Amino acid sequence: MMKARDVCAVLVILVFTVTVYGAEPGAAEADEAGQGSAASSVRTYGHWEDPVGVIYDSLNCAPDGSGCDITFHGTAHWTDVHSEVGGPLLKKSDWKGESNYAGTAHQETVAFVPQHSTFLEVDTFTGTVEGCGKGSFKFTLAGNVDFTALTPNGWPGRGTWEVIEGTGKDGLTGITGGGTSTFFFRPTFSNFGDLVGTLICHHHQQ
Question: Using one digit for the tens of pLDDT, what is the confidence trace for 90-100?
Answer without folding.
Answer: 899 999 999 99
